[in-house]
Write a structure and sequence with these properties.
The protein is of the alpha/beta class. It has 9 helices and 8 strands.
């Protein structure tokens, strides 16, 4: 299990410095959201954060490039993220699709849902937006729930067992898993986990989109979730 980030170093942002919170008015996210060319990264220790702050900007690693070194020729890049306030509560998803020189951003929000449902929804929306059949895709998500569910074959196993995780325990979110599996069957999709809040530009942008959508004034109804929890 990945260790939790406790310190966020903002080298370039509204108020550069080291923050102990990511979200909120006084958190690191507020310093870099919609700030062009921001430079930041999360760390487990304050010492690591201080070291990063002292490093010249032009020598700091481009974490996004590191994540896509295995990119195949013609492969489409999709970044996804989900957000939920209080979980369950108002939620949103964010998607960034990079197809050659073209970049497309998608987002949406729901009035009552969960973080995991928004993580799944982001993947569904991203793959549904592909116009070319049998596209080759690498999809980045910071959700182990999503990445392991597909990559380790858990979702297919639940599906083959009638959406049961065990003989007595039902799988959660079968409606969204079924949609995602269907889309994966239409395209050649590689799922890759990326650490959240660690300076990956695609992931951070999706987080911004998802959070903004969750805070929106016009939110959709997650019919399945609300129907199952009324």
């Amino acid at each position: 299990m990945a260790k939790k980030k406790r310190y966020y170093a903002v080298v370039k942002g509204r108020n550069p410095g080291i923050y102990t919170e990511w979200k909120g008015h006084n958190g690191a996210q507020a310093q870099i959201m919609r700030f062009s060319g921001s430079v930041y990264k999360g760390f487990e220790t304050e010492g690591e954060a201080k070291k990063f702050m002292k490093q010249p900007i032009n020598e700091q690693p481009d974490t996004q490039e590191t994540e896509i070194k295995g990119l195949k020729e013609g492969e489409i890049i999709i970044y996804t993220d989900g957000a939920c306030i209080n979980n369950p509560g108002p939620g949103g998803y964010g998607v960034v699709i990079k197809n050659g020189k073209k970049t497309e951003e998608l987002s949406g929000g729901y009035r009552m849902t969960t973080n995991n449902r928004m993580e799944l929804m982001a993947c569904i929306v991203g793959l549904s937006a592909l116009k070319k059949p049998s596209s080759s895709v690498i999809l980045f998500s910071d959700s182990k729930y999503v990445v392991d569910g597909i990559s380790k074959g858990w979702a297919k196993g639940w599906q083959s067992n009638g959406w049961m995780r065990t003989k007595t325990v039902s799988a959660i979110n079968p409606d969204l898993w079924e949609q995602l599996l269907e889309l994966c069957g239409k395209h050649d999709v590689r799922f890759q986990w990326v650490r959240g809040h660690a300076g990956n530009k695609g992931n951070e942008r999706c987080d911004e989109l998802a959070t903004k959508a969750a805070l929106g004034s016009t939110l959709l109804k997650d019919d399945v979730y609300e129907g199952n929890n009324n």
